[in-house]
Amino acid sequence: MMQILDAGIGRVIAAVQRNPARHENFIIFTSDNGGEPFSKIWPFVGRKFDLLEGGIRVPQICWWPGRVVAGKVTDQVCITMDLTATCLAAAGVAAAPAYPLDGRDLLPVLSGQAPTSERTLYWRMGNRHQRAVRRAHWKYLKVAEREFLFDLAYDPRERTNFGRKEPALLDELRGLWEIWNREMLPVPEHLTPPMSNLAEMLW
Amino acid sequence: MGGYTGYYTHLGDGGEHDLYEGETPVERQGYVTDMLSERAVALARKRPRRRSRISSASIIPRRIGHGRRPQLKRRRGSARSIGPKSSRADRPASMAR
């Protein structure tokens, strides 16, 4: 399965590299969500349909000789919607003013021209009414009625709840989520399993 | 195709035929990951004059859980977007994924 994917990617890259303007080729390899059952997601915990890191962390490889620094691993926190802004910037066009983008152009970081910067990212998921905020290395997570505060720098497996030790921070991140949520479309009321209640969930 | 098309059978999760060329159902033989790669290669070989984007979304690694997943709906996509379309089942209420 993976071998066929690997070989297929090789064929696609070979085909686009035959283009005379191959120096303009920008190739991104990524995934759409965390692991399905049987995926190796160590050290993370959780899986698809969870807002734990195992459910939302994805691999991403960017390749563009001359523009993207080769062989570099960045700690920049980013999210899939950044790819829209990045691809538009790569093409040298701007988003329509009436439709502002949620993501951010990653090329300055990928090209080594800008340092990494702090991000605040938000998630919500119908399954178990999950909510999550990530700001720098702190992450607020709510699953059903339980709230957690994790320090991803110290504990990427999200096993240590700092909620009681840092109640002000937990309140602040919860407040940020609620502000963000008011800007979003409402969650549909009637969601069917597994969207509303996945029994195999960790909590 | 939906998110859980059979690799060889090209059947969707409800057992329905689930392989399309644009909006037209087609009968093909092959391993679906290879078919998607070949389609992307064919698009790349056309050497478009203008800036273009190919999104090749292979459905692996993924188990095919016939009968266990909700029926998926197909969405209209651009000609250059090949592979499974996003579905409600793939993104329940999450605005981010």
Mean of all residue-level pLDDT scores of chain A: 91
Spatial shape of chain A: globular
* Sheet/helix structural class of chain B: little secondary structure
User: What's the gyration radius of chain B in Å?
Assistant: 14 Å
Described by strand count, sense and barrel closure, the largest sheet of chain B is: 2 strands, antiparallel
List the total number of helices of chain A.
5
- Class from helix and strand fractions of chain A: alpha+beta
How many DSSP-defined strands of chain B? 4
**Strand adjacency order, main sheet of chain B:** 1-2
CA-CA gap between termini of chain A: 31 Å
**Average pLDDT across residues of chain B?**
70
Q: What's the helical proportion of residues of chain A?
A: 10-25%
Radius of gyration of chain A (CA) equals: 19 Å
Please write the string of helix (H) and strand (E) elements of chain A: HEHEHHEEEEH
Shape of chain B: elongated
List keywords for this structure.
heterodimer; A: 203 residues; alpha+beta; two-stranded antiparallel ribbon; 5 helices; globular; B: 97 residues; little secondary structure; two-stranded parallel sheet; 14% helix; elongated; disordered C terminus
List the helices and strands and how they pair.
The complex is a heterodimer of chains A (203) and B (97).
Chain A: H1 2-17, E1 27-30, H2 53-56, E2 60-63, H3 82-90, H4 107-110, E3 120-125, E4 130-135, E5 138-143, E6 146-151, H5 167-183
Antiparallel strand pairs in A: 1-2, 3-4, 4-5, 5-6
Chain B: E1 20-21, E2 24-25, H1 32-45, E3 55-56, E4 81-82
Parallel strand pairs in B: 3-4
Antiparallel strand pairs in B: 1-2
